[in-house]
Design goal:
Largest sheet: 7 strands, mixed
CATH topology of the largest domain: Rossmann fold
CATH superfamily of the largest domain: S-adenosyl-l-methionine hydroxide adenosyltransferase, N-terminal
Distance between the termini: 52 Å
Order of helices and strands: EHEHEEEHEHEEEEHEEEEHE
Number of helices: 6
Shape: elongated
CATH architecture of the largest domain: 3-Layer(aba) Sandwich
Number of strands: 15
Strand content: 25-35%
Strand order of the largest sheet: 2-1-3-5-4-6-7
Length: 269
Amino acid sequence: MGALITFLSDYGYRDEFVGVCHGVIARRCPTARIIDLSHGVPRHDVRAGALMLRAALPYTPPGIHLAVVDPGVGTARRAVALAVEEQPRILVGPDNGLLMAAAATFGGVQDGVEISNSRERLEPTSATFHGRDIFAPVAAALAAGVPLHEVGEPIAPDGLATLQLPEARVENNTLLTHVLTIDGYGNVGLDATAELAAKVGINEASGLIVEASGMQTPAQLGSTFADVPAGTLLVYRDARGALALAVNRGSGAAQLALGLDDELRLRPR
């Protein structure tokens, strides 16, 4: 496995936290190449971090994947390193569900260790900065070639924490779907696919009605924003492969007054 580490967190850039973790990694594994996926995960939002990680990792080379969104830092929640089934990838982070959606993308967890008391951790260990003192040094050790079983104690994959995500469904010729993400442009990521929409007769020729926030808004199924006039609602397959809502030159979330987990109904026009 090459000395590649991807890094995702909710640390932001106002403080020194990201840079300090980079420094810890560089001291333990000077040859490591670090790819910062994002440090703009909303604070404490484990689910948002999990979805970002799942979306990003298929586009990165195999390696060590460090992720820290950890509102339970310092509690009894475990710190873990997890090897996946299908590629030489190891995910390092808190056992709070953050890593599991990404792991499922690569066949699920094959093997794992608990690293809270790893011999690689920094001493003294802060109760509130495990990114610096546990996760970063363990990730660096793995990138340096230390075997997984040497950085922690074995754990059973079936005991790992998971996240509960909403699931789209077809009901009475209507597609019921939910808001999973809202990006910086106001584009709304859903938990449905184009294939599921087709089951209720939604296609580019039919157009559709989006029922949300007490409103019924006409929309067009398309492939990109410019398929509709400015200010018009579009339903499209986003870069993650799922259905999404957007307004050309505007914000789908703002126009439909949507928030995370809101339920929408999509039906042919």
